[in-house]
Structure formats: C-alpha cells, structure tokens
Amino acid sequence: MIALFDSGIGGLTVLKPVLKELPQYDYIYLGDSARSPYGPRSPETIKKFSEEAVEYLFNRGVTLIIFACNTASSVALRHVQQKYLKGDKEQDRKILGVLIPLAEEVTKQTKTNRVGVVGTKATISSQSYNSEIHKITPETKVYSQTCPLLVPIIEESWHTKPEATSILRKYLKPLKSTNIDTLILGCTHYPIMHKDFQKYMGKKTKVFDTGEVVAKSLADYLERHPEIEKKLSKSTPKKRIFLTTDDPAKMKTFAEKHLGQKIKMPEKITL
Fold it and tell me: Residue 199: helix, strand or coil by DSSP?
C-alpha cells in the first residue's frame, strides 16, 4: 500500500494526479489537520509530528510513504529516513518526499536560470530548495517568499474569497520584480490556488503543478525499483482509505470536491 501524508488537505493536490498516473495500487491518505499548519512550528516539532505519522502508517502495513507536504519534506524527511529505514527495513519500505522531483524539473524548465519558490516559513527557512537546485545548476538564482497565511486560508476553504486574492498578491509582488521565469509552489496546499498564482505572475512565468511532477516521478521510481513495486498491494476493488486527525466530514467534503469522486467517510485518528 502507498500512503500520502500531509499536514492537512494540501496533499490531495498530489493524490489526484498520482491516482490518475498509478490507479492500480491501494492508497491511504493521512491529513494531520488537527495540528495544521506545520509551517510556523519549530523543526523539532515538525520532526516529532512526522515521526508519529510515519510510525502510524507503517503500523497500518504501508510499504511506501510519500511526504506530500513540503514542510515535512524540507525539515523532517532525512531525519525519518535515517530513523526508520535502517538495515533490513530499508529493503522492505521507503519514505519519499516532493522536494527533489520539483527541484529537478524546474532546472530542466527554466530558460533564464531565475527561479522563484513560495512556501511556508519552515520550508523557506530550511533553504532546502536552494540547496537541491544548486546541486544541479549552481548558477541558478533562487528567489524565495514565505506565504504564511495561505495554508490556514485554504484549510478553511476561504481561498475563493477576494481577501485571499489580495493577500496572495501582496506575497507575490516582491517576486514579480525579480523577472523569474519559473515558480515552484513549495507547499502542496498552494496548487489549490494555482490559477490565482498564474494570473498574477503572468504568461512569462511558468507556475509548476506540484502534483503532476511528483506523480510522474513516482511512476519512474517504481519502474526503477521493482523490489518495492512488487510489495505494493493491488486489491479488487481498489482501496482508497482517508484518515484525518480532525473533522472527517470536512475532509470528505473537500476531498470529494477536489478529487471529483465520492469517498467513504474518513476515519478520525489520533497520532
């Protein structure tokens, strides 16, 4: 089974294209909405929350966990990989993030080597995107901007309100003056406002759809790692399990709207 973990509902923007690209597998989606957002929290707290999610999912029999959360990927991924994938366990299960696929794709797409990244405070402070991009193309200039209010706005479904657009424009104004030609939405919540990002940045800036990039990267990963792929369950009918630490009805409503399909009532859990 494949699990996608996020601080809330943002990871659904990754789940949707993953289900389209790889529909044959069983999936669990875990949104820790009770403790969202992760962005303003300390690295120690983000690591602790990520550990709790990983332990829970492995105990549910998951083989492959995707950190469908840029904050967790930036701050906690390496930590949990080192803690939970030691020795023989590394052969039986994997934990992957969203950061490296995006960094690799943006370096292929930029024509001017001027790249923007928007994300939570924790993601931007970690400098993770800068580091990964510069490993590939050291000459690329990376311009970063925190957007701390967007996650709570999206979690509360306020992102269609005029106030949300006004806040977004204030965040993006400094980036627009840098003449970037590509923009990474460094938070899986942000693609829910993809059209608003693209409209403000204009046609000269490509705004990346995080989920599409991650889905294609995951398909490629499984093709290159048949030893992991063969361990993934493929039930009939296919399993689609949704877990939340907060309000199941709220997740159900949002998930059905975003995924365009009916789902069973999510299970409320405690991490």
Answer: helix
